[in-house]
Design brief:
The structure is a homotetramer of 340-residue chains. The first copy, chain A, is an alpha/beta fold. Chain A contains ten helices and 13 strands. The first copy, chain A, has helices at residues 13-23, 43-46, 63-67, 81-86, 106-112, 146-160, 189-192, 207-219, 253-261, 310-325; strands at 3-8, 28-35, 59-60, 71-74, 93-96, 140-142, 167-174, 197-198, 224-231, 238-245, 267-269, 287-294, 299-306. In chain A, the strands form two sheets. Chain A has a seven-stranded mixed beta sheet with strand order 8-9-7-10-13-12-11. Chain A has a six-stranded parallel beta sheet with strand order 3-2-1-4-5-6. In chain A, helix 1 (13-23) packs across helix 10 and helix 6 (146-160) packs parallel to helix 8. Chain A is globular, with a radius of gyration of 19 Å. Chain A starts with a strand and ends in a 15-residue tail after the last helix. In chain A, 62% of the residues are buried.
């Protein structure tokens, strides 16, 4: 079986990463590549690392160009997916790397993104409780945000097992590619290198309600999430430090994490004493996790690392595609990082 | 008045930064420079940025070499200062950039550093409540650790004003120079660049009891500190994100911070809407702070940035020297960073 | 004597660096700060490292705002200085950090920059033969380009002494701040970090004729310059590797360099066996040089390092101001870098 | 057909990259993993990115452990391969990632490496004239050095076609992983980040005679190579700028390069106007090249980019293995980089 896949937003970072992975997927044929302002130019001008596709010319992002494919990846700015998706046939698998269809709560959408909500789609994080079932046979999938992916996986086992209080603190440090190719002064290399900064502090970051939604689902009750993102000088990678008060002793913590992920191909609880690094997951679909207890505070500390563009975006999209189409879940994906 | 200053450990990062600042201090004459394994070699081989001192030859670190100075900076590995200091005359101002004399509690010393405690000295963080008075006329000063400096300044006003609960969460991201010039695999450039990592998780980092000591002094009661340090790919700078539950509404928060630091020459509460970056304080003695309230959680979030080698180490040493000797506190120090 | 200085283009990198240096200059009072698109906003929004000036509001760049000063620094895009300068009084010292007045040859101007040439001004590189004399008492000064500064100083002694052939090869690696704050995709942090690239290859870079002009002046005959700039992932610093065939043996090389710079406060020929690094000159006005001979090829290799924003731009501007006004040449400038 | 491969030196950078590629090679089964000082520990402690092999324990590097494999990769310090290889059966394919068997000239070996020469092996750069034939059926292969790979490919077509003079200038900028995991002060992250430096200047770098050997073979006469390596702050990647005087006009240059590499799967001459970047080849086996002529100097400028660990070391090793064993040359290798 060969699946024909179109990528809308092929000149951006999410689209480029999707293409990098799809080029290595044995069951995929890459179809239309589209863009907004870059339509008409060769992909090689924007993605020089995708040599086999360098001469492909970008089409305009329209339903007509996209519709005759088995799968359409939408890697568009937030708010642009719903209108396109509505014009694609129901039997086309549409995978939205943007935020449009992640949140269940229209009020939350309006508060953090603004405007009318396009409705939630099956959520592409199969490692959450019940997550995989929702994707089997799906034809519309919302790819999780990068911060929610690692934060949710780092805390869900403890919440699902009732081991921690429903107030969690997440401070996640990220490379710059999560912000996309937008031309903003604070994203210039001269500003980023040699500097650390924060943004979206105090619950203002749009990923806050998405983390809360995931954790609430895992816990079966509302979870209060204090989320602070930090920008650091590297292109890729997120390291999330997550903590919460234990409800009891910490004896069951490690077993709960080990059990939660024992059959997961991409989520790895490291041996005791080793801690995740983003370099170890660069370009891979793996999540590396470690968990410990602060003995003075009876507080759980869970740390996770992902590549924000791979497992944090495009890898999750491919993984979800595999599940939806009944392909082996790991096809075209790797747990081997590119390091050093 | 000219003060003659010796620097022990002149080939390391703390010693080098001390010399960089002392070269710009109008009242200082630089005396003996000493080292351990690097004794006998020229400073220029180790600190090529200190051009005016490039031909100075490093002596062995001995009391004899150091004693005939007005001030001695000790920038030695932890545990090496006490023995040297004990052999220096009482009227020599000894400023220890190491940890030997920071902690009041011998039990804490033994647990986090090991061995017998050498006793606490006046603590070189004048911006803490009562901190400045303890330094006037002092002849022994313990320079704070880099993480405790920024974390304590970010949380002390809220604790002193009773605005937050006595449980705080600090996640601080640091450049690599805080780890010194030790030849360890994880500090190699190839490992550091492109990666984020954690260490000392779960209360294991030695700066945890020092932060708790400072915050306890500010609050007047014990403070539980959850501290997680993150290593990021930049040479200098610490960005600390600190949070805690508010005891009441957040209305008094900003005023408390503004009042705490209104007369401080080096601690700057930024205007609302601007957030600290480490680039803005590179090479300067400034601390940039911002504080906000998460309205959904009634949680205070305070963020601070320092240069770990300047205000976080050698700048604090010079500032403390100035106070101890009755010089204007800001002499030889700057609030202007080197950016971009 | 206090000199009142205005800075036009205060929100850019060259303007910011000029202000950083001027804040430490004991004879300077900082007057008007102007900008183009950023006029009306506070300097602190653009240059958060310049804390003492954070609340200063940027004025529009007009002759009226600038004229009532002793000195005006122009840190404007290329092509914008001439019109402003023409409307400033003759007795105001105008220092142009842009390229408008560097080239003597109108044809070269037209080829590399385009349009009519505004005419050459005294050139702010006092370390070139005859360079200092041209600046004494000057009221119009053209600050050299960053690449020409280090490349010219690295090769001039050998050319002036007739030790090398008139064909030189310069490959210079630079940080990103030399490109300014322009919002271009290839300058985004995500693109820069982890990558090396070339630009302006084959004589296309605008600094090529400026290097040739300087070297021709030193040699007393035309010099053919092969110049290739490389962009590397760091904010500041240029390392230039320069080579040429020796005309004779290499015995006189070191002596020629030592003699050329023996009285220069900012140009340092390193001891044999040590090589320049850009970290050693970060934020300083120093140039570090080393020179050797490839014994198999009878070829001279000279390597120089500068901070492109300091000695490569704003430091040269301050140094030239000092000379022009009769102040000690090193006032407000340092040979001490900020490292690591 | 499944090939059983052992890797000696599995805890280093070259060995780790070999394993990363071999994990993706469909015809390879990974056998023994050995190390020197790290023998006895788990691979996951040293190579956390190689998740599928994390629990494998490293054996001592001995002939006994290595001999029962179809292929042995030696990723050992220079000078250690010959003794091991001499004790491995003749029909085992031994691929040496070190320098021991690269140079034909014992005098050159003694001068640049020291000691007795172990003799040259077939050279693993199939894209050089005649290079592929030498590898078919070989059972001993010397993997080229990283700098020689990109420098030779960038200049060979012009030399083979007689288009340039026999004196070439190569300045190549490299990331830090080429220096390996050696614990040297100048390789610490704090020293590397934010800095550019040179080393091995004036013909002192060991890759100089290897480049000359390759270019001499391509040209059919001796070539004088001026080679200067520059260290830049990134983990991986080499960008080489190479230049030489044209013997005639430059009209034939592009055609010569296009023809030389038209059938090569890994060497890509970019379309005119695009220039290589190291980010575009990160983790891939591709070489990106561009060539132009400086019209004022009649000088050829060729620029190439490779990942020093992939095409520059371990990718070349896998490519050579494929050729030697009669597998399709591109098996297990990619031309798709990991960017941004």
């Amino acid at each position: 079986m060969t699946v024909r896949v179109a990528v809308a937003g092929a000149s951006g970072y999410a689209g480029g990463e999707a293409l990098r992975l799809l080029l290595g997927h044995p069951d995929v044929e890459i179809g239309a590549l589209t863009a907004g302002g870059n339509a008409g130019s060769a992909l090689g001008e924007h993605q020089p690392h995708l040599l086999p596709l360098a001469d492909r010319v970008l089409a305009e992002t329209t339903p007509e160009v996209l519709k005759d494919h088995d799968v359409v990846f939408l890697a568009l700015p937030h708010g642009h997916s719903a209108a396109i998706a509505a014009q694609l046939p129901d039997d086309v698998l549409v995978i939205d790397c943007g935020a449009d269809h992640r949140l269940n709560d229209p009020t939350a959408w309006d508060r953090w993104y603004g405007g009318e909500h396009a409705g939630a789609w099956p959520y592409g994080l199969p490692e959450l409780p019940g997550g995989r079932d929702a994707l089997v046979g799906a034809r519309r999938i919302a790819v999780p945000g990068c911060y929610p992916t690692v934060s949710s996986l780092a805390l869900a086992p403890a919440l699902a097992a009732g081991l921690i209080d429903p107030e969690v603190v997440v401070v996640a440090v990220s490379g710059t590619s999560g912000a996309g190719k937008a031309l903003k002064p604070h994203l210039l290399g001269s500003e980023v290198m040699g500097s650390l900064s924060v943004y979206g502090v105090g619950g203002a970051h749009r990923h806050t309600p998405e983390i809360a939604q995931n954790l609430g689902r895992a816990a079966g009750r509302p979870i209060a999430v204090s989320f602070t993102p930090v920008l650091a000088p590297l292109p890729r990678g997120i390291l999330a430090t997550c903590s919460a008060q234990l409800t009891g002793g910490g004896d069951e913590v490690r077993a709960a994490y080990a059990k939660a992920y024992e059959h997961e191909p991409f989520v790895h609880l490291l041996p005791e004493g080793r801690w995740p690094t983003t370099a170890a997951v660069l370009g891979s679909n793996a999540v590396q996790l470690q968990v410990t207890v602060d003995p003075d505070l009876d507080r759980l500390i869970a740390v996770g690392a992902v590549d924000n563009l791979t497992k944090g975006t495009a890898g999750a999209a491919v993984q979800s595609m595999n599940i939806a189409l009944g392909l082996p879940e790991t096809t075209g994906l790797s747990t081997v990082g590119v390091a050093p």
